[in-house]
């Protein structure tokens, strides 16, 4: 099921053209974790959106197609993540597809990204093969966000859009403090003040929460 590909063009062509986020709860080694995931476009025309999204993350999943191999923009996005000192989890997808050349593509990944082949996860998102291993590796290898809830609220806005009924909807990464309905926030860029009418998470659709 294409949960994050919501636009018609994304579903028809199997590509991502708009940043989408989703939160999920995952139990691992007796603990419950909240994972906040961002799906970013891979095309060069959307590199700004990728850069903004990476700035709000602690790590990234480097997803490579075992049929198509490494695309040019994949290399550019890798170095964007690398330059921000993000933990990178290399994943090779579609290993069960006809025409998949996982050994050849893994060699490309080793040469292009200087990766240890033992760290490359072979998966099939379609069948679910090793998908749990990806989530477990994310928890094991990518550090949790840092921040102080006692400090004034601070966040990074990485995407927004206008909804006819709800108004402006913002996707944010909370750095410090917390935010709840009724709060007044200030844009660090413009100095404009805004009132918060609702907060929540994408689960994967909008789900109200008391605070973030």
Question: What would the keywords be for this entry?
Answer:
Rossmann fold; G_TR_CS; mitochondrial ribosome binding; 5 helices; two-stranded antiparallel ribbon; 24% helix; Translation factor guf1, mitochondrial
Question: Layout of SSEs?
Answer:
Layout: H1 8-13, E1 20-28, E2 31-39, H2 47-55, E3 59-65, H3 72-83, E4 87-93, H4 102-113, E5 121-122, H5 131-141, E6 154-163, E7 167-176, E8 184-186, E9 193-195, E10 200-202, E11 206-208
Parallel strand pairs: 3-4, 4-5
Antiparallel strand pairs: 1-2, 6-7, 8-9, 10-11
What can you tell me about this protein's structure?
The structure is a single chain. The protein has 212 residues and is an alpha/beta fold. It has two domains: 8-141, 3-Layer(aba) Sandwich (Rossmann fold); 154-209, Elongation Factor Tu (Ef-tu), domain 3, CATH 2.40.30.10. The chain is built from five helices and eleven strands; from the N terminus they run H-E-E-H-E-H-E-H-E-H-E-E-E-E-E-E. The strands form five sheets. Strands 3-4-5 form a three-stranded parallel beta sheet, sandwiched between helices. It is elongated, with a radius of gyration of 18 Å. The two termini are 28 Å apart.
């Amino acid at each position: 099921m294409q949960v994050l590909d919501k636009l018609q063009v994304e579903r028809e062509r199997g590509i991502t053209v708009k940043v989408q986020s989703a939160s999920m709860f995952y139990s691992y080694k007796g603990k419950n974790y909240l994972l906040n995931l961002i799906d970013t476009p891979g095309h060069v025309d959307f590199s700004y959106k990728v850069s903004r999204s990476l700035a709000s993350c602690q790590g990234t999943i480097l997803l490579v197609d075992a049929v198509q191999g490494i695309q040019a923009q994949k290399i550019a996005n890798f170095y964007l993540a690398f330059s921000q000192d993000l933990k990178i989890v290399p994943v090779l997808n579609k290993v069960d597809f006809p025409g998949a050349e996982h050994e050849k593509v893994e060699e490309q990944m080793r040469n292009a990204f200087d990766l240890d082949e033992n760290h490359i996860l072979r998966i099939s998102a379609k069948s679910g093969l090793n998908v749990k291993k990806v989530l477990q590796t994310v928890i094991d290898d990518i550090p949790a966000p840092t921040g102080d809830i006692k400090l004034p609220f601070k966040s990074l806005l990485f995407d927004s859009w206008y909804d006819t009924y709800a108004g402006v909807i913002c996707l944010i990464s909370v750095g410090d403090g917390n935010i709840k309905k009724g709060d007044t926030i200030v844009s660090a860029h413009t100095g404009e003040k805004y009132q918060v009418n609702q907060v929540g998470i994408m689960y994967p659709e909008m789900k109200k929460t008391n605070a973030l």
